[in-house]
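Entries read sequence, tokenised fold; example below:

***
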Amino acid sequence: MIGTLLLTLSLFSQTLDVPQLTTDPEVVGQGKTIALYLRFSQSLQKVEGFFLERIIPFYPIRRGSFDPEIRDPELVSGQGSGPSYTYRALIGIPIGTEPGSYSLRITLTRRENFNFQISDSIFQSSDSKILESSIEVVETPFEREKITIPRPKQNLLTSQALTEEAKIIGNILSKSRESQYWKGSFLQPIQGRISSPFGIYRIYNDGTASRPHRGVDIANLEGTPILAPNSGRVVLSRHLHFHGNTIIIDHGQGVYSLLNHLKRRFAHKGDRVKKGEKVGLVGETGLATGPHLHWGLSISEIRVDALEWTEREW
């Protein structure tokens, strides 16, 4: 369900105008994704949100924004009496977020010379204006599973390599490009049995190490081709001790796919890949108990349920 909030605003020396904030879906579950669309008749210099103690970037929706070859695509205009400009933010809800209503603040920064008034405040010069709303987070049921790691790989659970790899991956996921490289819904990189769903609470061996699963595991035969979930740029392609052979694809605007435990990697750092292109083969490298693909999806450094992105478009 899509929710819409009209934010009261009147323009000085112009006709009445109201910026429209739309949320899709209206409420969002733990580990899921919510899209915010801010529509306004004026082109804004910057739109930025603040939610769950994190800065949330908004990006202008542009014609052809999914095509990296288009350098300066035109902003999408609205229908009806005049143009409008739409800005979108994608928010990933952390798995551990408690259900409830959370405040959302959106800062609008003007472009060029126009003044408008929201409530009793006038948007002037280089001033910004903060709009306030809220987002309702609901519970997502997550199961538990016990995993037995073979003795030769047990040291990976507490290996210093895990910390080092987390820094490498975290540094990549912290970057964001304004361009959108993906188009439409995502593909599931391989078909097969979901051997471990997103968010399941994992208990390893004797229970000394446990954490929620931050991706989805899809089991299939070793050597099964792995396809790019959507178009993007390869920003990492290398072997990691814990994650095994790994490819990370930057889809733009803070959206990344992480493909782990590969037998072989065909895509290399710097490559542009297209949706459905073969990028590797299923394996069981790193901390794996059998051949499978671990597919993770990160939205502005928050891991979310990747399968949700195969069922809808953002």
